[in-house]
Structure to design on (244 residues):
């Protein structure tokens, strides 16, 4: 990690100094109506995440892990319960405020990085900053520092097609961190990577959590990734339970 990361860390720590919990969900449930039947995906889910805490969510395919992540990120609405981010209820926000919350307070990283292919690594990381209408020169500096912090200082002008799978995922992580999010939600971030690239991403998450005071919620099938987290939760039979 370079010295520029210290500046990023200072800003992030300051932004979290007024709250004890980054994310809290209580009595969270999700169900769908199919004909005359109710299909329950999640039921009575409770979760509390502190600054810099890293948790893994594991479970069988189809158990509802991605649904839970979408609820935590405000991409879907729960049937019951609520999610609060830095003390702010997502249910209390209108569409515009919710969009601003997702852009400024949360970061998202997916199994398929979803980088814009026509833009460079630098331009991809700049996107959340431009959407937030931040100062252009300061945004360029911020994006450059983030790419440096994830080990891509020599790849800033490369488009995704010229990057390896691991490098593309690093760009996605840098983009997720652009607006100093309190929490980054990751859905199978190493699912399409080989073991060497996965190890690199895992070490990067360790470093960023410590340096930037960012919380990470990682949905994963990879036991190596899960083992590196501070705690592991298993989603089974619609319930989320912390593993011993």
């Amino acid at each position: 990690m370079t010295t520029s990361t210290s500046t990023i860390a200072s800003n992030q720590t300051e932004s979290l100094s007024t709250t004890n919990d980054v994310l809290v969900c209580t009595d969270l449930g999700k169900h769908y109506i199919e004909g005359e039947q109710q299909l329950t995906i999640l039921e009575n889910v409770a979760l509390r995440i502190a600054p810099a805490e890293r948790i893994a969510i594991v479970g069988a395919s189809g158990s509802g892990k991605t649904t839970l992540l979408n609820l935590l990120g405000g991409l879907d609405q729960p049937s019951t319960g609520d999610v609060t981010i830095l003390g702010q209820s997502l249910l209390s926000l209108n569409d515009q405020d919710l969009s601003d919350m997702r852009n400024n307070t949360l970061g998202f990283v997916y199994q398929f990085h979803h980088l814009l292919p026509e833009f460079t690594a630098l331009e991809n990381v700049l996107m959340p900053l431009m959407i937030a209408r931040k100062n252009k020169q300061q945004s360029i500096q911020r994006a450059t520092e983030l790419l440096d912090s994830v080990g891509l200082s020599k790849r800033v002008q490369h488009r995704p097609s010229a990057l390896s799978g691991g490098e593309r995922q690093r760009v996605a992580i840098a983009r997720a961190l652009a607006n100093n999010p309190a929490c980054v939600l990751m859905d199978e971030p190493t699912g399409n990577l080989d073991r060497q690239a996965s190890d690199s991403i895992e070490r990067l998450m360790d470093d960023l959590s410590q340096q930037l005071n960012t919380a990470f919620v990682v949905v994963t099938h990879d036991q190596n990734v899960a083992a590196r987290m501070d705690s592991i939760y298993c989603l089974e039979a619609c319930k989320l339970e912390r593993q011993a």
About this structure: The chain has one domain: 4-17+48-75+90-242. DSSP finds eight helices and ten strands in the chain.
